[in-house]
Fold these 4 entries.
Entry 1:
Amino acid sequence: MLNLDLLRREPDHVRVAARRRGIGAEFVDRILELDRERRAAITGVEALKAEKNVLTAQISRAADKKAAAAELRPQIAELDASIAAAGERLPVLEQQIDAELAEIPNILDGSVPDGSDEHANVLVRSWGEPPAFDFEPRPHWEIGERLGILDFERAARLSGARFTVLRGAGARLSRALVGFFLDRAARNGYVEIDPPVLVTRSTMWSTGQLTKFADQMYVVEGDAPDEALYLIPTAEVPLTALHRDEILSGDGLPLRYTAHTPCFRKEAGAAGRDTRGLIRQHQFEKVELVWLTMPERSFDDLETLVSNATGLYEQLGIAYRVMLLCAGDTGFNSAKTYDIEIWLPGANTYREASSCSNCTDFQARRTSIRLRRDATAKPEFVHTLNGSGGAIGRTLAAILENYQRADGGLTVPEVLRPFAGFSAIEPDGSTR
RNA sequence: GGAGAGAUGGCGGAGCGGUUGAACGCGGCGGUCUUGAAAACCGCUGGCCCUUCACGGGGCUCGUGGGUUCGAAUCCCACUCUCUCCUCCA
């Protein structure tokens, strides 16, 4: 959520930022007008309340309180009526302002390039070479099905489209990836968290997933309508909201968290895209990395976060490139986002494996996470960052495609072997 | 699911319906003392909002939302959460 104060002080700045994202900016004047009305109403109500408080204090100081109360009661009743009348529109105005404000995306950082869609994203750097094969590399679903480690058919029977059953060495390899990712996160100083994957509506709202992305979310019914719980689409949600409504001490920052969780997404609007394989699933696993940090260093921290994520793919020996997302492609919460895309030989293309964002104070304001630099300082909002420190499914797909052998078997990347307990999968699905 | 207890400031812990935004202790900050530190002593020490160039002024806030009252942290109702016991359970 944007700071109302920013709209008041620099409306043009907000207008420009909105246009860069390709959305209209009429909301600025609409909100400012509502805000003017709101403040006028507050001033009116509070003046009346102050008057009333004077009378009430008079009674409490009087020797004969009963008599004083009796005397002043008519005046107070009159004030009560005025207060009620003056404040009548206030809740409505506040609700309108909050509702409008909550739908505005974050202000983009100056370094974000112009552009309306992914074609305008900028290549920042790339690492590694796509491997050369002396045979036609297969897509991962073919490799996985041949080896008997990926089973899409039975998954469909259980749950429908966009689910996968991992079997034997496949399940094992997936678990190895989890271990590897969490291990590297710990080495990089992240504290491992095992959070709930069902969260309340207000938690989901606080990290900016609602109300804009409600159609992407699975909801679990509660006993009452307002007791519904949401399945997290990413561990960014519980990790970012972990310190909700807290004031953190400045010397404790940055806080860095990691979590391995399942993630659930409806993928509405993605019909027909990536229908095969592990790329786009309703349920997938991910290791997430989240920072709560000081405002002045958050953009430097974003670079660190990106290198934490890219380091994983260097160690796995998978070629990748880092893209800086353009204005139109940058997410709602984010001021600046880098995508890390890894090479998939079977698809002959790079695919997103991690999206690293600096959400500045946008989520912190919604979630109310603040910091106090020292004992006398005023609280200020922290900056939050998030990115995946390992997408399990997509990385598994990349490993299958990059490390496939001509005979249909698979070589396990060196760094994964201690976690997997084997170094290769043979064409018959056995491990070695 | 059944029975009880409780939710107060960074922490602990008071609080007859009327200068209680909240005693007291701890912690934190500033100062005196000291070569320095500790101890001792003195002072300050929640958050949000409106208003003001500023100094300041004002409103709200004792789990949340309602109610009673001229006035509520204190009384009433509902909800949420925590703890103890029983029951059940991965």
Entry 2:
Amino acid sequence: MNRGIALKQPQQIPHSLDELMQRAHQLTGYTLGELATNLGWPVPKDLRSAKGWTGQLIEACLGASAGSKPEQDFPELGVELKTIPITPEGKPLETTYVCIAPLTGLNGVTWETSNVRNKLQRVLWITVDGRREQPLAERLVGVPILWTPTPEQEATLKADWEEITEAIVLGRVEQITGRHGIALQLRPKAANSRVETQGVGPDGQPIRTLPRGYYLKTSFTQALLHEAIGVRVE
DNA sequence: GTTTGATCATTG
DNA sequence: CAATGATCAAAC
């Protein structure tokens, strides 16, 4: 796979959705090794100690504002960027992290004003071959998919979010497991299981508890990818 | 410690 | 063998 010079050096922030999508399409068919080399990045042996590497590489290729804090990757375009590891058949290999879950200060927050909805309003999915048996440098970038939840999908997300949020507000955060929710789930999001943050206990009292994050289940991601257009790595 | 980027790896 | 709970690294 060598189609000459195409994407060199970190990109500037795209000024329009068209420009962003054009760049995204230009990545299709390149290997992660080629993209990394073009940027002068080393390729790690595997992702065990570099779990966010692919996402950061794609960010740099598309000109996302790196390391930014709470909002979307392209605030001016209203677009959140997500790389999604899949098999050549289009099956997601991992759940998708959405954002941290607020455990306090939830009074007055609704689905409409939630971080989850804000992040998922418009997502640019970059499919990447994520098979572990495939050497990292040889993994192919696939087609980009710009997605906005259908009314049905949003209703599912909203229902999951409301169920989880209500449990958090009522002090049942430690009883919520990854099994809750159809599309959205709540799971640990921390350096390790000893990390603690502030939460609310059963009697409304402050407690120390494991930080959690919202994740999209693979079944939901797979459905949305296939609805958008039959996904393939190449 | 928190939030970004996620994948790892044990368990059912 | 998928899914849940655990974990890794960087920026701040």
Entry 3:
Amino acid sequence: MFAKACPSRHTLEHVTGRWGGLTMGVLVDGPLRFNELRRRVDGISEKMLSQTLQALERDGLVHREAQPTNPPRVDYSLTPLGRETAERLLALIHHLEARMPEVLEAQQAYDTR
Amino acid sequence: MFAKACPSRHTLEHVTGRWGGLTMGVLVDGPLRFNELRRRVDGISEKMLSQTLQALERDGLVHREAQPTNPPRVDYSLTPLGRETAERLLALIHHLEARMPEVLEAQQAYDTR
DNA sequence: CTGTATCCCGATCGATACTG
DNA sequence: CAGTATCGATCGGGATACAG
């Protein structure tokens, strides 16, 4: 599990990285287009959103569906695997948010010491 | 949940960052000393282990107990909050590892396309 | 609208040496 | 043993411009 070369570490980093989790989190509610995603993931740049989506698509967590229309329209959604993964990730996030009072208290105690 | 300024994002990054999760993962099995941790978290440097532990301790996820002996002995362990957090994180990691065949298959398909 | 390409800066991280 | 200090190299990531 903690071997350096373990291939799951790469995927784990995509999911838990700075933008991966947030991106999957907003996709849980349903498919979104590129610029909708960009607006909902607070602070992400075009470049990072593009890179994040490519990594998640390559890992089979996100499905990309491009309509050959003009102007182009591309919908991103979670695959079944992506949805299962997002659920576990959200369980972690929600747990952390629920416990933030404890965390903040611990930080206060640490800093004053 | 996805606000840029949300304080839980900082803690989330400590937990899901490159070393935070791995460090908490090895601590689930019980308390460990500094160099034991260093050996078990494959590839981590002294500096990063030190920084990681300080961040997790400040967040109230890891407990640090120093014995005033010579040579010094310091034990690191998970707090109850840290344990609950680690469980959810491990649920994510184990899920991902169990599905790695699917992930690798998706990557193959993506790359050949 | 949906991206890609380029530049560039600062943060991150590893290696090394050193201290208590 | 348990860290801290310092120095480079690397890399993530933002801004901008551009393409289909």
Entry 4:
Amino acid sequence: MKIASFNINGIKARIEALSEWLKEAEPDVVVLQEIKSIDENFPKSHFEDLGYIVETHGQKSFNGVAILSRLPLEDVSRGLPNPENAGRDEADDIEARYIEATVCTDKGSLRIGGLYLPNGNPVDLDQNGKPIVGSKYDYKLKWMARLHQHAQALLTEEQPFILAGDYNLIPQEEDAKHPEKWSDDALFRMESREAYRKLLSLGLTDALRARNAEPETFTFWDYQRGAFDKNNGIRIDHVLMSPQAADLLLDCQIDVYTRAKAKPSDHVPIWIQIDL
DNA sequence: ATGGTGGTGCGACCA
């Protein structure tokens, strides 16, 4: 089974590029981020005609995630659980950033979480250097804490799962062409990286690093200043795998070539092949 | 070096 993650930066602008890549790459399941569309406006039938089931979790103008699958999906859920505020504060879930479903085959099933982690910029700190409550950076870190709790809950179920998407997170210096330029950025700051490291230390495997040790392996290049031509990129789209899922991992690749095509997203797809 | 580009949806806001 081939499973991919792709931040498309707007379904309306990317319908051609996404369709072309689906035909070339033939993934069985794709999690999409930044569909920037409400559910009603997502071109569902277009992708159904290409052989995919479509499940969306959209919102107007910003964010929005989706799952496309050639295989049957079960138990689709939208939004990340919010244990701290369950039933009391819906504000944390206004932004559509998480969708999850189980994909079933003859050999077994796999739970797939598709996520669009908050960017977190600008970084607003108080006099003590702590993120100001209610700021974008605070929202990012709190969202990461919720993701951590959710991953913990999934691990206790002992079911193979993956968490794939745009993490808006540069894990290490080697994941940026110019790491020094990112030192105060929410994508690379200490608090963000620490939260990511803690998530991994639950026992999750970074699929790309498990299969690929090549330097300068990026998934995002800014549209400005010819960033792609200079390979001035960052690795922020990740596929994390539970121990049971990681045992099935066969390959992990990044489809860099899509960034050189007409009307590209600023991100490129990352995919895994698993023995399922 | 100041978002310089690009997306959404029609005025800003987001990345």
